Amino acid sequence: MHELSIAASIVESVTESAAAYPGARVKEVRLRVGALASVVEDSLKFCWELATEGSPLAGAALVINILPVILHCDACGVDTEIAGVQSFRCPKCGELAADLRQGRELEIESIELEEPDSVVPDPVEEQV
Amino acid sequence: MTTRIVELRRGILKKNDELAAGLRHQFTSAGVLVLNLVSSPGTGKTAFLERTLRELRARGAQAAALVGDLETDNDARRLAASGAPVRQINTHGICHLDAEMITRHLEGWEGVSLEGLNYLFIENVGNLVCPSSYDLGERIRVVLLSVTEGEDKPLKYPGLFNSADAAVITKIDLAEPCGFDRELALHNINEIRPGIRIFETSAKTGAGMDAWLAYLAEQARPS
Ligand SMILES: Nc1nc2c(ncn2[C@@H]2O[C@H](COP(=O)(O)OP(=O)(O)OP(=O)(O)O)[C@@H](O)[C@H]2O)c(=O)[nH]1
Ligand SMILES: [Mg+2]
Ligand SMILES: [Zn+2]
Fold first, then answer.
1. Looking at ligand 1, which residue's alpha carbon is closest to its atom 8?
2. Where would you tag: which of B74, B87, B172, B175 has the fewest CB atoms within 10 A of its CB?
3. pLDDT (tens digit, 9 = 90+) per residue, A84-126?
4. What's the CATH code, domain A3-114?
5. How far apart are CA A3 and CA A9, in angstroms?
């Protein structure tokens, strides 16, 4: 049950980034989550509600984009997407492949903000 | 109202990842080999580590351990019986260790300096899901699997098994009464983490410990 810690980290990170746009409301947060990231989608959504409740992020939607595993096969020399996470074999030649090119991501891809029309201030320099 | 999309492309656990990178750098410059032991509750991490610490000390190596549990310092007391310096980390409900907890417990650890150690073992909280996302700055992540918990564990927890650098099958003294299917277990580990080093051990009889200790010595050698 680390989804709650993950939700809290997202809240912290998004709050920081949104501070560069005063007056804006966060409508949506989009994540990229690898199939091997050990994150349960429903559980994360549930924890997101808890973590944002009563905060400026309350009501913001959480969109979770699950990324399949991509393996690099030395024999074929290509990167191929595999179905599921039960066997790490190259779909082309059937060899086991240890070289993971995608599948562990745990990232905030983007946020969607709603800003008042009146004055649209230049964003404050974002801190990285 | 106008809508604006801001691309962030930022790691959710960025803070942990940065702290872990700092720790890894610190461990490397101190010349200490750090291992993170992960498994389900009760697989035998503490028993395996107790035996490892005793054997390492008998061979003149300097080893220490940090051990994570939700509550109690029972595991730290068991490990300290080996004579090695041990520090308990109580997470009070958190189901995994993180890099911040490691940093905090390395500070002010009486009588222990990283430079003076050959090995530092971190026993994670018994959990096969959450520890996989939290880098602790270790060089080797060891996943343990006992003969009593089913040969299909790697298939059920691919996220963790795929992130490991070495696998240890524990309690092999119980393999026969448990009807443990060794070939199937080895096959499943290999399907999820092709080519991983696998050790078959018993903390009770000491079986398989020599191969494990040889691996440790080989990994600790500066390359
Ligand atoms: N027969 C046998 N029993 C073992 C072996 N290793 C551990 N055990 C027993 O298995 C039980 C759990 O062992 P621990 O070492 O406490 O397991 P753990 O993984 O540290 O458990 P947590 O820290 O609670 O997750 C204890 O009763 C041990 O005595 C072994 O090699 N053989
Ligand atoms: Mg233990
Ligand atoms: Zn191939």
1. B44
2. B74
3. 999 999 999 999 999 999 999 999 999 999 998 865 566 666 6
4. 3.30.2320.80
5. 10
Return the structure tokens found at A27. 């409508």
Q: Domain-by-domain residue ranges, chain A? A: 3-114
Helix axes B209-220, B45-58, angle to 10 degrees: 70
Q: Can you tell me the distance from the alpha carbon of A107 to that of B50, in angstroms, rounded to the nearest whole number?
A: 38
Give the ligand at the shortest distance from the Cα of B48. 1
Distance CA B114, CA B29 (A): 9
pLDDT digits (tens, 9 = 90+) for A31-45: 999 999 989 999 999
Q: Which residues surround ligand 2, an ion (CB under 5 A)?
A: B 45-46, 75
Please answer yes or no on whether B129 and A36 come within 8 Å at the CB atom: no
The pLDDT of residue A103 is 97
Structure confidence by residue, pLDDT tens digits, B77-109: 999 999 999 999 999 988 999 999 999 999 999
Q: How far is the CA of B45 from the centre of ligand 2 (A)?
A: 5
| β-bridge mates for residue A78, sequence order | A73
Radius of gyration of chain A (CA): 19
Choose the residue to mutate in B75, B97, B144, B205 for probing ligand 1, maximizing ligand atoms within 8 Å of C-beta: B75
pLDDT given for residue B216 in this prediction: 98
Domain boundaries, chain B: 2-220
Q: Which CATH number fits domain B2-220: 3.40.50.300, 3.40.50.1000, 3.10.129.10, 1.20.1260.10?
A: 3.40.50.300
